[in-house]
Amino acid sequence: EPWGSDQLEEELADLLHEVDEDGSGEIEFGEFCQLCATFLVEDPPLEEMKKELKDAFRIYDTEGQGFITTETLRGLISELLAPLTDEELEGILDELDEDGSGSMDFDEFCEMMMTKQE
User: Fold this and answer.
1) What's the pLDDT tens digit per position in 58-110?
2) Residues 52-89: b if buried by 16+ CB within 10 A, e if exposed
3) d(Cα 65, Cα 69) in Å, to the nearest integer?
4) Rounded to 10 degrees, what is the CA torsion of 7, 13, 18, 21?
5) Long-range contacts of residues 75-79, Cβ cutoff 8 Å, at least 24 apart
6) Number of neighbouring beta carbons within 10 Å of residue 16
């Protein structure tokens, strides 16, 4: 067992407990966004933030193709912002998919995560 891995596991367990508001043992998208927001509030160096966002992006880029599908986004957004009408959901998806590709690439994801809500 690598040195310090117990400490890392403990830190991860603490973080999960802190972020997992509903106690499900999993981090839902809304909880994940709140976790990301803590990094944005603390204003870490841009490179560090990009690394954190890349790690987060990989969670949803399940096929490792370099993009998040519209179907995946649809599920995440509807869970996060429920209740939404189909029309509202489509409007959000259209706004997020700036290039009309039907998917969200890493740059679009970064822009979404780094845009402060007003």
Assistant:
1) 888 888 888 988 888 888 888 878 888 999 988 888 888 878 888 888 888 88
2) bbeebbeebbeeeeebbbbebbbebbbeeeeebeeeeb
3) 10
4) 180
5) 76/29, 77/29, 79/28, 79/29, 79/30
6) 14
